[in-house]
């Protein structure tokens, strides 16, 4: 008798569970992807720097670049790491916002040229403007893997002690600094 009832109600219970699970997904924001690195130190690394001046300016091969930057050396003030690429169409959407943010000089902007041809990166920045105080190169995408990058663009907000305090998947909004960066910096203090 109990087995008969279980056979009758079990499929209904499974369908009810699946329905609740799928219905919950309708209210989730697909741009809010959880990051295991929020609240943790940014992964330490030394990366090549994209230069527009000096003997390395003409270098198009990563092996020709001798200037390196340690992520640890960026400690001391909050900063933004924007993962971008010249082949990324969504990067064009947010790029004017970074240009405007750079003019305000409220926060240090670091670009991470992700899986991009360096000549294309230089051409793209020359065409659309360079908002970055520093441009690091991740040509193979290894550092992006350590950061948990899903794709480009992605933007990370770092505290003064290099802790990741916010991650934006997709283009940043026009009021990124006022609506996201500044409140996150204040909340992290």
From TrEMBL:
Its main location: other. SUPFAM superfamilies: Thioredoxin-like (SSF52833). Belongs to the thioredoxin family. DsbE subfamily. PROSITE patterns: THIOREDOXIN_2. InterPro entries: Periplasmic_diS_OxRdtase_DsbE (IPR004799), Redoxin (IPR013740), Thioredoxin-like_sf (IPR036249), Thioredoxin_domain (IPR013766), Thioredoxin_ResA/DsbE_sf (IPR050553). NCBIfam families: dsbE. Keywords: Cytochrome c-type biogenesis, Disulfide bond, Redox-active center. It is found in: Cell envelope. This is DsbE family thiol:disulfide interchange protein. PANTHER family: THIOL:DISULFIDE INTERCHANGE PROTEIN DSBE (PTHR42852:SF6). Pfam families: Redoxin. The keyword Disulfide bond applies. Residues 36-189 form the Thioredoxin domain.
